[in-house]
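Worked example 4.2. Below are the chains of a multi-component assembly; read each line carefully before continuing.
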Amino acid sequence: MSITIEHVSKHYGELPVFELFSLELPRRSVTAVLGPSGCGKTTLLRLIAGLVEPDAGRVSGRSDEAVSYLFQEPRLLPWLSLEGNVSYVLPETMDAGERRNRAGRLLRLVGLEEFVHYTPSMVSGGMRQRAAMARAFAFPAQTILMDEPFQALDIALKLSLVGLFRRLWEDDPRTSVFVTHDVQEAVLLGDQIVVLSPRPAHVVQTWENPVERKMRSLEDATLLELERKVYHALLEGAS
Amino acid sequence: MRQNSPPNTGRNVLQNYLLYLAGVLLVLSLWQLASILVGLEIILPAPIQAAKVTLQMAGTRSFWESVGATVGRGLLGFFISLAAGLLFGGIAGLSRAAARLLEPAVSVVRSTPVMSVILLALIWFPVGIVPVFVAFLMAFPVIYTSVAEGIRRVDTDLLEMSDTYRVPRGRVMRFLYLPSIYPYFASGSRSALGLTWKVVVAAEVLSQPTLGIGAGLQEARALLLTSAVFAWTLVAVVLSGLSDALFFLLTIRYRRAVSGVKE
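Applying the procedure described above to all two chains together yields the following structure tokens:
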């Protein structure tokens, strides 16, 4: 089942963030959401996560209560090992051994098998974000929400993490929403690309990514064309 | 936590140690010099004289009973403060309303002169309880504040992350709250413990229990045994230093574990 946002309104005090906002997030596909700063992208994620309630309208279709969430920062507990950090979020239905195994497996998948016992301060920023990604995929939720998780990284690191996300996702596809400012990231990861207007946000335009997931690369002419259209819509929406 | 000092290499440790020793020698030389200038043992005895009297006293049974009595009162006061500080500080840290409700009471206690507390306690309580009560009243606000502050400083980003992943409450308590509060709690308790010895001795001076460092001080003063006043003072300083070192050693393991920082 896809996640459906229907006629949602949300105000912060006098400030309208959403006014009868609707969007559909197809099941097991990645929706990339772009829009000007402050248009409510993070609020959108929080609405989907159930962390804030809409004033009106409804969000439906989320199959479980909890979601996986990749934040802008890694948000790891500084005193726990990377493994401890991943197993920290795993549900109580798993026993301690199961949690440790699952944490170890995901950390291996993101290439951190040698660092499972290190604390976050002992590894690099890129490695911390990879650990956060391992945490998101270790957590058994059908939905993954991402709030500009590659924002603070340099281009090489960013591309390697985008690639890593794609591999993890292919292995274990989940309904994903990916908020970003970066058009390149959006067309590389998004199966559906959505551009929002300034506040109160509405959908300016939506595209289906015409390129197969595995074929998407920075040089692909079709993607470059899509990138251009997205830029255009962003600029137009902002004016 | 000493983040700006250079790393603790072997040479640095030795150097710091030597500097510390030089500082001690400096204090002792100034003291010696002053006592020569004054020239009257009854006003300012020489360090060697004070040390001699201390050693003499240490040979008696009543000396150790006095130290034991002071330590007992101090620890009792300290642990009561610790329990109350954790409880009320915890409540105040978690609830803004509770913090506001408790604030006037804690402020009054915090800013009341220690002498007023001692004098009132003398009116209200039997002699033996006075130092314990005073220690509690002085140490409690320090621990209370540090615990409340520690809870308020818990990283909201990490709390939000735990919320998003619906991490069970017990786990959030154990792995997020406790380690976050710990440094505040440890440093607050450490200052509170140092404060405890000072106010217990002061309370003993005024309440005059049969045994106690403060009682010894008062008796020595009354008899104009200035060397003995110095000797008891020395004992109080050593007691405070020892308890501080012990406290540090007891907490260092956990501190390392939670902060990942080597001290």
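Take a moment to check your reading of the output against the notes. The mean pLDDT of chain A is 89. The first strand of chain A starts at residue 3 and ends at 12.
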